[in-house]
């Protein structure tokens, strides 16, 4: 399947080197349609996440999915108000967490790194399927632990909104101004040869 750059992406994002358009097309909108996501499409995102690289193949990532109104309302109390005002319309909310203890009983220091990679795979597959995703750090992890019954050896990282992108005009005026793909710093600011370089 050939993917082309989305019109709003062409306007705001430009790669200096040749990469697949899926990497630039993936961004984090806040306007969502309430249209349901078919099971075969939704679970293909988790299938992609399943195949993310993992230190010692521990696969520490865990996903708690809320797609019924009852389950989504269970999520709302631990999501920050600034995120709730837009994310409640998304048909699916997912809490991503990871197992902090490895199979040998010791702390897995790669657990969050691996969970982040799984989230990246999920987000890219969502983009391929015509869906949008937005990961939110604005939530109360301890409240989420209590409400969702998350064990002590599991660390919650983010809540992800998943759905089909809605119209910008459905958002408040302040949010409409932010409803565009963000740019990225130059490679020279993040890639150093040989030793770390301060800019």
* Overall tally of structural domains: 1
The helix content, as a percent range, equals 25-40%
Q: Give the name of the CATH superfamily.
A: NADH Oxidase
The neighbouring-strand order within the major sheet is: 1-2-4-3
Strand content: 5-15%
Broad shape: globular
User: Mind telling me which CATH architecture this is?
Assistant: 3-Layer(aba) Sandwich
Name of the CATH first level: Alpha Beta
Kindly state the mean pLDDT as a whole number? 95
> What is Rg?
18 Å
Q: What's the total helix number? A: 8
Q: Gap between N and C termini, in Å?
A: 40 Å
Please provide the count of β strands.
4
Low-confidence stretches: none
Structural class: alpha+beta
Taking the sheet with the most strands, its summary is: 4 strands, antiparallel
Order of helices and strands: HHHEHHEHEHEH
Family: Belongs to the nitroreductase family.
Pfam families: Nitroreductase
Keywords: Oxidoreductase
Protein name: Nitroreductase
Secondary structure elements and pairings:
Blueprint lengths: L6 H6 L9 H4 L13 H12 L10 E6 L2 H7 L5 H7 L4 E8 L11 H18 L3 E5 L4 H8 L5 E10 L9 H6 L21
Overview of the structural elements:
The protein has one domain: NADH Oxidase (3-Layer(aba) Sandwich). The protein has 8 helices and 4 strands. Strands 1-2-4-3 form a 4-stranded antiparallel beta sheet, with helices on both faces. α3 packs antiparallel against α6. The longest helix is centred in the middle third of the chain and has 18 residues.
């Amino acid at each position: 399947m050939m993917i082309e750059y989305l019109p709003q992406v062409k306007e705001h994002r430009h790669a200096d080197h040749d990469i697949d358009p899926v990497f630039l097309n993936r961004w984090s909108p806040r306007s969502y349609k309430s249209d349901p996501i078919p099971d075969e499409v939704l679970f293909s995102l988790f299938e992609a996440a399943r195949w993310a690289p993992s230190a010692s193949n521990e696969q520490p990532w865990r996903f708690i999915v809320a797609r019924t109104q009852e389950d989504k309302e269970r999520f709302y109390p631990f999501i920050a108000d600034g995120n709730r005002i837009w994310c409640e319309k998304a048909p699916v909310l997912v809490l991503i967490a990871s197992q902090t203890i490895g199979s040998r009983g010791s702390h897995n220091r790669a657990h969050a790194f691996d969970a982040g990679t799984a989230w990246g795979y999920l987000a890219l597959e969502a983009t391929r399927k015509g869906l949008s995703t937005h990961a939110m750090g604005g939530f109360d992890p301890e409240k989420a632990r209590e409400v969702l019954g998350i064990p002590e050896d599991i660390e919650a990282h983010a809540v992800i909104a998943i759905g089909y992108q809605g119209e910008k005009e459905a958002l408040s005026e302040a949010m409409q101004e932010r409803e565009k793909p963000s740019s990225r710093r130059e490679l020279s600011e993040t890639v150093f040869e040989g030793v770390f370089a301060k800019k």
